[in-house]
Design brief:
The structure is a single chain. The protein has 11 helices and 3 strands. The chain is mainly alpha-helical and about 250 residues long. Strands 1-2-3 form a 3-stranded antiparallel β-sheet, with helices on one face. A hairpin with a 3-residue loop joins strand 1 and strand 2. Helix 4 packs antiparallel against helix 5 and helix 8 runs antiparallel to helix 10. The chain is elongated and about 60 Å long.
Length: about 250
């Protein structure tokens, strides 16, 4: 529970229940909590402390910029420092004019524009599939790539898709995405995947072919395949999915 002080006031920790602690933690995703913890650790290693002075924070931001950290990383580190001070109910140095001006100057110098990824096209997919043979691994990669393209899935969403999330319809599949980066409350979303005009790039047919070939009947849809051609009983990681896309030479969505 060492990351709780950035979310809940320290004086409250001794009286709230374990259940309340868990709910408080879930006010932010685990990825955000882990990132904030790492950012505060970087601030401590640099020589900072909480509570900090505006001068300390401004100097830390300047050091981050000089060390060539990305603008987004610097923004997140500033947020982590701000959250730590809010949790302690002490003066927040990140709100000072000096820190604001320093951060604004860093953003202007480093730039904050996000590079948009170019989505795949049907022509890209057809050209790539023409180079593949019919083995198990390629059947999986075909299904993964075309489903990701057709449904605009994030790699983390593809990694966590289960057979139980598929519902066959007359049009194709209705897929439940139980948790995603854009659904932090975990309400779940649905994506409809319909038959394509070209069987070679039809997401419904390719997914169905992979499931039949791999004999997957429950659990994760996309799984590792060992050198002996056996399908593992666990899900592919988001990192492995990214590697598959990069190895294909296709641009990720």
């Amino acid at each position: 529970m060492e990351d709780l002080p950035a979310i809940v006031e320290p004086e409250v920790l001794s009286v709230i229940s374990d259940s309340t602690r868990r709910y408080a933690l879930e006010s932010r995703s685990k990825a955000t909590r882990d990132a904030y913890a790492a950012d505060l650790e970087a601030f401590y290693r640099w020589g900072g402390q909480i509570p900090a002075t505006p001068a300390e924070v401004a100097d830390f931001l300047s050091w981050c910029a000089d060390t060539r950290y990305a603008a987004a990383t610097i923004q997140r580190r500033l947020s982590a420092i701000s959250q730590a001070h809010e949790a302690l109910r002490t003066d927040n140095p990140t709100r000072s004019e000096g820190v604001r001006r320093t951060h604004k100057g860093i953003r202007r110098m480093l730039g904050t524009a996000t590079v948009k990824k170019t989505p795949l096209s049907s022509a890209d997919l057809r050209a790539y599939f023409g180079q593949l043979n019919g083995d198990l691994r390629h059947a999986r990669d075909r299904a993964l790539l075309v489903l990701g393209f057709a449904g605009a899935f994030r790699r983390s969403e593809l990694a966590t898709l289960h057979i139980e999330d598929l519902e066959e319809t007359d049009e194709g599949y209705r897929i439940t995405v139980r948790r995603s980066k854009t659904d932090q409350m975990g309400a779940g979303t649905h994506k409809v995947i319909v038959y394509g005009r070209d069987p070679a790039t039809c997401p419904v047919l390719l997914l169905r072919h992979w499931l039949e070939l791999s004999s997957i009947e429950t659990g994760p849809i996309f799984k590792p395949i060992n050198r002996g051609g056996m399908v593992a009983d666990r899900a592919l990681s988001g990192r492995t999915i990214a590697d598959i896309v990069m190895a294909s030479g296709l641009r990720p969505t």
